[in-house]
Amino acid sequence: MQVFDAQCHVHRCDEGYSGEDCGKRRGEEEGAQVIRMESEEELKERRVRVTGGGIGRGCARITSGNSLYFSRIAARRSGWVVRLRSAAHETQLLRCIVVGVRMMETKDFVAEYVQFLQFWLRIGGGDLILCSSTSSSPPVILEYSTDGGIRWHFLQEFPPRQHHSPRLVRIQAKGPVPGTGLDGWENGMPWMSTTDRVLKRYCNSPVESAVFHGSRHEEKFALTHDVVFRDHDVLMFEMAVECGAMFSEEEKVSFEYGIVDDRGLVEWSLFRNALHPPSSSSFSSPVPFVEPSIFYPGNWSRVLLTPPKRILDRPVLIRWIQKKGSGFSLRHVYLGPACPNHCSGHGRCRNGLCLCDSEKYLGVECRFSERVQTGLEEHFEDHDDDDKSGRGHVNGLIYHGGWVDFFCGRKSWNERSLVMGGPGPRVVLTPPLNTSNTSSMMLTVGIGSSVSSDPKAGCFPAWDEKGSVIVDASVDGGLTWSPPLQVLSPAHFQEPRPIWIPLPDSARGPEIHFRFWQPFPSDTDSSRPHPRPTWSVDDIYIVPNEPGMTGLEEDFQPLHKAQWFRISNGKISQTCGAPDNVLQFGQENSTLNSTSRHVHVAESPD
Predict the structure, then answer these.
(1) Quick one: CA torsion of 62, 66, 69, 71, rounded to 10 degrees?
(2) Who contacts 433 (Cβ-Cβ below 8 Å, separation ≥6)?
(3) Membrane: is it a keyword of this entry (predicted)?
(4) Please, which residues bridge with residue 427 across strands?
(5) Residues 195, 196, 199, 200, CA torsion sign
(6) What range does the domain containing 561 cover?
(7) pLDDT tens, 277-288?
(8) Do 563 and 467 have their domain in common?
(9) Secondary structure of 300-343 as H, E, C letters
(10) Do 198 and 147 belong together in one domain?
């Protein structure tokens, strides 16, 4: 402030200020300013003036800790809360007001090189008594001053109807925003804000991880500062949701990126959208099918994502958010150049180099140090799931969303198989296989049924062409997947039937995983009025190329098992007056077939 002396044509600045316009305060902070709104003492220290409000939780928590809360106790208006982050350019004051009754005003500070103003805002919502708002409720107005608060300039208006839930507001200043890479909590992870978070060992983790927790009905999230993805960058992290609890769609965690729109509001999009097979019984795809970047309750898993092209070379925010649930945990978050073969899924990336998980994995790609098995054969006959938990493993196969049982509860339909009828994602993963000398695989698949649904048996028919089962392969431990090796349509598999799938060169190598899975529809998929069809897989046969038999001769005296891949619902017996054993098929309403091993059929000399 200044006082002008007309007789002497001089001005006198208030104590602590200097310069021709008294705009410079001795010891004034420059650059980015952070006001966390955690205590009244902080407001006094930061010289923030508040009218009609105070520090507290308000209508509901916005981020971790307290916020500045303006309630109906101060005036008959809808409550609102704010968390201020930083300021725009020049020496300024900032003020947020609701006309006539509530106001927050910052001190003046130099922010010539600061590039944005950012804060969280909620107007109404939450508690119906203290925090309700109507269409007639006044907006919150953001203003700034460059002359110590004598004159105020309009910056932006925030209508209540757009802010019933907490929203991040960002007012961008001129100039580019530099990108910031991510490389772990311990190395200065650029987190802007989070809900309640502790660092501890979670869900049997050998190292500390960041655990985001709180009331089941409150949002939990982790939000970064600006990051910039360059071409060939990847994002890799490890996550556990609800520490392996049973599937629950409402406890999912969404991974999203945010772009600031023209209004200063952050618009959020899933980092990866779903790409599922079309509703067609005959098609091929040159690109992999993928699920969206939504994660459901489960133990620790490693995730790798590539950024969408639309966000390359521009500043974006990224966040993990859980609307409901008891919490989730993150560890080893990395953004940067991809590592060789993504460390084969056995290590984490740092500065483009692999840190292998254990001594079992060696080399620049963290390959297995021990020999990988060369074949897999499984018929599920010696295993039964009594608890129907939906998770398990058989002979190295890992499955989610299924159990070993009779398909659709009908014992007359084949023998036991792996029935995939759980409520969440349905996926079967093989162990790593050396397929360098393997040219094909065989398996038996059934999708839905031609009979009416039987929910008690976990069976739903195929109502339409949706519900296809996809077979694909991975060379990096399941972090990325190939274009489909085969897409199995319900139209062709309402009765279980064997299928032979040739392996392309991309699915042949020293360490290949295979995946059999059915896309999981989102909760907003209005085009799916019926449940997904139950499906099953059986008789998985992935073995190296065999010399093969040059002929087939079988007299069933006894059965020569080495010659047969599968005999379904058949038995060796004497029947119909036959003097010797025969292979008899006679069970009604059942799948009846016999499949031999490979037989080389030579061209007839005739």
Answers:
(1) 90
(2) 372, 373, 374, 375, 376, 511, 512, 513, 514, 542
(3) no
(4) 400, 517
(5) negative
(6) 548-606
(7) 776 555 567 778
(8) no
(9) EEEEEECCCHHHECCEEEEEEEECCCCEEEEEEEEEEECCHHHH
(10) no
Q: Which DSSP symbol is given to 452?
A: -
Residue 587 has which token pair?
């069970």
Provide CB contacts within 8 A for 443, sequence distance 6+. Answer: 498, 499, 501, 516, 537, 538, 539, 540, 541
Do 204 and 290 have their domain in common?
yes
Cβ atoms of 59 and 74 within 8 Å: the answer is no
Q: What is the pLDDT of residues 44-74, one digit of tens each?
A: 887 888 877 888 766 666 766 778 777 644 3
Average pLDDT value for the chain:
76
Separation CA 403–CA 422 (nearest Å): 8
Q: What is the pTM of this model?
A: 0.71
Query: Tokens standing for 238?
Result: 């490890």
3-state secondary structure of 98: strand
Total domain count, the chain: 4
> What's the number of CA atoms in the CB half-sphere (13 Å) around residue 50?
24
**Do 211 and 319 have their domain in common?**
yes
Please indicate, yes or no, if residue 352 is contained in any of the structural domains: no
